[in-house]
Specification:
By secondary structure, this protein is α/β, with parallel strands linked by helices. It has helices spanning 2-9, 25-44, 75-86, 103-108, 155-173, 199-216, 230-246, 257-266; strands spanning 12-16, 19-22, 50-53, 92-96, 115-122, 144-149, 177-182, 220-224. The longest helix has 20 residues, at 25-44.
């Protein structure tokens, strides 16, 4: 935090080749993290059941002591910690569907069983973290669910992972607050990755999230992360907002082999979650 303020007050500079700050970046990053906290205040306080924060700069790559990947402060992690330590929430589920692994959020809550963190992300791709076998550490072992997908993955893989792996584990966790790191760079038009989602793919994932939140009687909020084709970003955000607001059942999909293989690994920590079985892990 102090280093970001110092760089901004000096007129700006680079933290790494991807992450730069200007004179106004420190204040903007404070407002972004504060906006996520304000959303959680409204959700936990009963003023809203659904929320969305269109924040910039994004946050999920930021680590406790380092800015990286266009991110200065980890907005969703700050908001999650605020809910846990300041608002009396005991269990938070964070789904990160940005195409890049949310390494910062992963590491911040790696040993914390109060946070179930699930990330679907293209691999190989920046930042090169988030293998399937990284399931957390210490008391938090099993509460990190990393679901890497290959380049070219489309809705058949992503939605199968959400329906058949992420949702069963999240229901078993019984969160009191549901949050989404909502990046839209897995869209087929995005220039920084190679997945093949459409705007409706994000709407379907949002419907799953809303259904989960309704089932466990928890509020749900989304925080904007990546998205680098402006047309795709706008359409995907609108589709997600509509789905979160109206709710309803997502269209079911068949278990994809990628999801079945992931389920076999995740089931080692969640044997009672009802994950689909497969003969090959």
């Amino acid at each position: 935090m102090d280093s970001i303020r110092a760089v901004s007050e000096a007129g700006g500079g680079a933290f790494d080749p991807d992450t730069v700050a200007s004179a106004g970046s420190y204040e903007a990053a404070l407002h972004a993290a504060g906006g996520a906290c304000a959303m959680v205040d409204a959700l936990v306080g009963g003023k809203a059941t659904v929320g969305f924060c269109g924040l910039r700069p994004p946050g999920h790559h930021a680590e406790p002591d380092a800015a990286m990947g266009f991110c200065l402060f980890n907005n969703i992690a700050v908001a999650t910690r605020h809910a846990l330590d300041g608002l009396g929430i005991e269990r938070v589920f964070v789904l990160d569907w940005d195409v890049h692994h949310g390494n910062g959020t992963n590491d911040i809550f790696h040993s914390d069983p109060r946070v179930l963190f699930a990330s679907i992300h293209q691999s190989p791709l920046y930042p090169g973290t988030g293998p399937l076998r990284d399931a957390g550490s210490g008391a938090g072992e099993g509460y990190t669910v990393n679901l890497p997908v290959p380049p070219g993955s489309g809705a058949d893989i992503w939605l199968s992972l959400v329906e058949h792996v992420v949702m069963p584990v999240a229901r078993a966790f019984e969160p009191q607050l549901v949050l989404v790191s909502a990046g839209f760079d897995a869209h087929r038009a995005d220039p920084l990755a190679e997945c093949r989602l459409e705007a409706d793919s994000f709407a379907q994932m949002a419907l799953h999230v809303r259904t989960l939140a309704d089932a466990v009687r928890a509020p749900v909020g989304a925080v904007l992360e990546g998205g680098y084709d402006l047309g795709a970003l706008a359409k995907s955000c609108a589709a997600t907002l509509d789905a979160l607001a109206r709710g309803g059942a997502a269209a079911p999909v068949e278990p994809h082999p990628v999801a079945l293989a992931a389920a076999a690994v995740v089931a080692e920590h969640w044997p009672a979650a009802g994950l689909p079985a497969t003969s090959s892990a």
